[in-house]
Amino acid sequence: MTIKRRKIIVVDDNPTDLVACKNILNPFYEVYPAPSVAKLLEMLSRFLPDLILLDVVMSEIDGYETARLLKNNNAYKEVPIIFLTARSDTKSEILGLDLGAVDYIHKPFVGPLFLRRIEMHLTLIDHKKELVELNESMHKMLMQKVGQLWRLQNAVMTIVTDLVETRHNATGGHISRTQKYLSCLVNKLIEENLYADETSSWNLDYVLPSAQLHDVGKIGIPDTILDKTAKLTKDEFEVIKTHVPIGMNAITRMEKAAEDHSFFHHAKIFVGTHHEKWNGTGYPNGLKETEIPLEGRLMAIADVYDALVSVRPYKPAFTPKKAASIIKEGKGEHFDPQLVDIFSMVSDQFAEMSQEDHV
Fold first, then answer.
1. What's the sign of the alpha-carbon dihedral 69, 71, 74, 79?
2. Strand-pair partners of 194
3. Residues in a beta bridge with 8
4. Which of 34, 103, 199, 352 has the fewest other C-beta atoms within 10 Å?
5. Residues 148-190: tens digit of each pLDDT
6. For residue 301, which of 189, 216, 222 has the smallest C-alpha distance?
7. For residues 358 and 307, what is the distance between their CA atoms, to the nearest angstrom?
8. Percent of the chain with pLDDT over 90
9. What is the pLDDT of residue 359?
């Protein structure tokens, strides 16, 4: 098996030093002499070496300026540089290292020591490449595992939400539709830079999917109440309201099992606050205005809109235009006024989505 020889470019405008360096290295490496920086750049346009040996003192452009040039070019900046010089002052060495050189070798060269230094740096370069490749491989494996867990989590959440909708046939498709409405609102909210302090910390990969659990507590409500076609009595409505604490308890258990996970953190907020109202007349805690978390204020609009445009045992479906009008009438009462303004900007998109899903 043929071992591939490393490529080293030696840059020096002193012919004697250039030949001396080449003679030492030639038995072990592919050596490319460059008597000028122009020649160096011409070579770099054709191939990238494993190492550049760069003389400091040259007549046209010195080694320091050449190093700056190379390190500022994305095509060459990763090629390691070793400075060659007759200078032995500390200030010059520090300057060279600050410019990104990996070493500073003094002239005249002592053959065996020179070779050992070159070999050491090429070995370090190999180890660095191996570590980078290992990190990339581990990162890829980790992302694959994260993707698998994310798909598993979504599958479990879909099953749970499907169970909720199976219990309450009248609201079929409600969960998927409210997710679409919510996504539309959030995207416009971010575009308009409204409530940026809150949304800037959100990971939408967790926030939006977590909203599908907002009605998970309805799995604990009796069918006789969920599917009742007549108006609910006061006592029955109190039972319906318990789907919020039931859902909160379920999410809390899931959150503990998953330890620290923002998915369940946001899910719990959606569950616990989507029935609160801007004027403080909502439930379960009668929160008012910005006491209500942003997730709850957003979901209130998506949730009510879908209920309005959907058939329920107790009502026909309203037109998107009528539903939008009711949302706007609730500005400052049921809903956050600024979020109603956001809704108004995307109400046509809501209408399109509602028509697609109710065909």
1. positive
2. none
3. 31, 51
4. 352
5. 666 656 666 665 666 666 555 544 578 888 989 999 999 999 9
6. 189
7. 12
8. 38
9. 47
Q: Count of residues for the chain? A: 359
Residue 207 token pair: 């926030």
Q: What secondary structure does DSSP assign to 238-257, as a single string?
A: HHHHTHHHHHHHHHHHHHHH
Most confident of 30-34, 72-76, 231-235: 30-34
Closest CA to 317 of 187, 177, 209, 221: 177
What CA–CA distance (Å, rounded) separates 353 from 234?
34
Torsion, Cα of 235, 241, 242, 247 (10° steps): 160
Output the pLDDT for position 175: 81
DSSP 320-352: HHHHHHHHHHTBTTTB-HHHHHHHHHHHHHHHH
Is the pLDDT higher at 63 or at 149?
A: 63
Q: What is the DSSP letter of 171?
A: G
Cβ atoms of 11 and 37 within 8 Å: the answer is: yes
Helix axes 174-191 and 294-309, enclosed angle (nearest 10): 130
Instruction: With CA atoms as reference, report the closest residue to 186 among 162, 170, 203, 168.
Output: 203
Mean pLDDT of the chain: 85
Q: Work out the average pLDDT over 97-112.
A: 81
> DSSP label at 314?
T
Q: Give bridge partners of residue 82 from the DSSP assignment.
A: 53, 103
C-alpha R_g of the chain: 34
Does 288 score more than 80 pLDDT?
yes
Of 159-173, 207-221, 262-276, 297-311, the range with the lowest mean pLDDT is: 159-173
Tokens 């071992």 belong to residue: 3
